[in-house]
Amino acid sequence: MNEKYDIIIIGSGIGGLMSAFVLSKHGYNVCVLEKNSKLGGTLQAYKRNGRMLGTGMHYIGSLDEGQMMHNIFNYFGLFNDLQYQRLNDDGFDVFNVGGKEFKFPMGMNNYRKSLVQQFPNEEEAINQYISGLLSTVKEQDVYSLQEPSEGKNSESNFLSTNAWDYISSLTNNPDLRNAMAALNFVYAGRKEVTPMYNHALINYYFISSAYRIVGNTQLLADKLASQIRNFGGTILNRQQVETFVFNDKTLTGVKTTSGETFFADSFISNAHPTTTMSWIPEGKIKKTYRKRLTGLKDTLSAFSLHLILKPGTVKYRNFNYNFYKTDNVWYASYYDEKKWPEHYFVHWPADILNPEFVDNVTILTHMKYEEVEKWKDLPIKRRGEEYEQFKKEKAEKLLNLAAQQFPEFKENLETYYAATPLSFKDYLGTPTGSMYGTERNYQRPYDSYISHKTKIPNLFLTGQNLNLHGMLGVSLSSLITSGEFVGLKKLLKEVRETF
């Protein structure tokens, strides 16, 4: 019989690793099971042509000293031996929307001043909009690393308010509406469903401050893993969960495709809810609960293009660049595969050894899973000539569009590597390759938000599908899930007081 653990955590994405860090630090015998050879989920990076290419997590918000994510990174030891590049104050994100270019400056006051300067007749609307952002953040105790007040309804009214409707109620100016909603690519926002809650928290998070990790995001995953092991935790790669093991109605273990069974008192799944439900045998959980979690809609997936560039030819840019061919930033709402691509996001990685130039660049845009679904059952890296031709055609189209703004990309190109929604499905473990997990819907605010507690008493969830995606949402969800074991009030106090 295998060793029995206190807690088994399935998946080594940010949520899984952070939960394992907290619990192993507090003395629990923790085991993390990861199906891939690499740890980290969206933190994964891989080497091609001597360059380290990242999967996701292109930048991190609220990392200035005294801000929420700075406290969290301190607690998780993520400033030790790691370096971060603060993006440009006057424009950490630059947007080109239908030929009109504008910048997102860092800091809420700077952001407000910039909008007023660009739209002097819209100051009242701008003030109301920023007031909405601030009030939404203020309502969330956990966002401030405080335990939710007893008897207080911590759910924002903006959960049931549509972001597009709210913005439209403030102004009729289409350019200002675009400026307010410009960041929605980072959560695949759709006009039809996105709650103002998501929009407000994520905008505030990035506008407060924005950083890149110097090097690659795999360093974050490796740092967390190293500390987990130092606390006595176990991390096992290439252990893909196949099914949960029950003793009558009690969850006791997980069986992996290698044939091994791992036992524990409690379990935390960092996997997508649909995947988690697939591991639970029939009759072990209520059908209505299973149906709700498997029926959640996913956000759009992505197509990413990694350009390998001639060294010393393409300069580093200390910002992200977002291009929209039309005058509408809600790309997920009007996405049309026949007109693809009409948008892209460019990320220049920061390199401490060569800060002036980059030897690779990532270009990212949306893509529907359905466009590649017919190849889903074919083996990884052996999906055939038709699939490779599909990737090549898409890569050339995206590169040609980006080269209109950045001709140096084509002029100094050595080669490129492309990833489709199937790549995200294979390596991130999301059933439809979604970058941002399940979609939040203001019309069904409580159905589209998932609790960390499940209908199985000793099975918990963590990760981007619970509240918000990205480093912001996943960090908070890991604290909430871990708080079930160590006490949330105690844990949040520890995070606030770590120096």
Keywords for this entry:
single chain, 499 residues, alpha+beta, FAD/NAD(P)-binding domain, Polyamine Oxidase, Chain A, domain 2, 2 domains, seven-stranded mixed β-sheet
Characterise this structure.
The protein is built from 16 helices and 21 strands. The strands form five sheets. Strands 1, 2, 10, 11, 12, 13 and 21 form a seven-stranded mixed sheet that branches. A seven-stranded mixed sheet has the order 8-7-16-17-19-14-20. The protein is 33% helix and 21% strand. Strand 3 (45-48) and strand 4 (51-54) form a beta hairpin. The two termini are 42 Å apart. 50% of the residues are buried. It has helices at 14-25, 68-75, 108-118, 123-139, 163-170, 174-181, 196-208, 218-230, 273-278, 287-294, 331-334, 385-405, 408-411, 421-428, 470-486, 488-496; strands at 4-10, 30-33, 45-48, 51-54, 60-61, 84-86, 93-97, 100-104, 210-213, 234-236, 241-247, 250-256, 261-269, 301-309, 314-315, 320-324, 343-347, 357-358, 360-367, 413-419, 459-461. The protein folds into two domains: 4-57 and 217-296 and 450-496, FAD/NAD(P)-binding domain, CATH 3.50.50.60; 84-214 and 298-428, Polyamine Oxidase, Chain A, domain 2 (Alpha-Beta Complex). With 499 residues, the protein is α+β, with helices and mostly antiparallel strands.
